[in-house]
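[09:14] KT: can someone run the structure on this one? pasting the chain below
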Amino acid sequence: MVEHVMGETTVVVTGALAGPAVARWSRLIRDAAAVQPRRLVVDLTGCSQIDAEAIVVLLQVHRAMIRADGQLTLRRPVPRVRRMLSLARVDHVLDVDESAQLPVGDPSGGAVVTGSLTGPRVPPTTNGRNHDDVAHAG
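[09:31] RB: done, C-alpha cells below
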C-alpha cells in the first residue's frame, strides 16, 4: 500500500520482504521514491522478514532520496527485521523510526493507493483524483 500525505509518501509492506517478493516491493518502493517526496516512509510493521537483496534495495533508495534532498525512513520494523538490519550493519545508516504510525486513510486528506504482493487490490483512484494526480500530489 502507498499513502501520500503532505510531502510524505508511505509504503506499507505486508508479509515478507524477501525472496521472490523483493522484486515486486522494490518496484513499488522505487516508484514511490520517483515522486520525490520530502520523506519516504517504508512501514515495516507488517513485514515478517527481510533478506540481503531487500536491504540492498533499501540502501539504493536511501542514496537516491539523499541525492534528491529527501529522506528514507523505515518505520517500526519487527524484532526479526530489526535484527537483520543490525546484522547487515545498516541500522545506523538507515533512519529507523520506532514511533507509532498514522492510520491509513488519515482524515488529513492524504491520498491512499492500496496494493499487495500480487498487485493492486483496488483501482488507483483515491480522494476523487486519478493515479496521475496522486503521483504528483505533495
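[09:33] KT: thanks! Residues 52-67 form the longest helix (16 residues).
[09:34] RB: yep, looked fine to me
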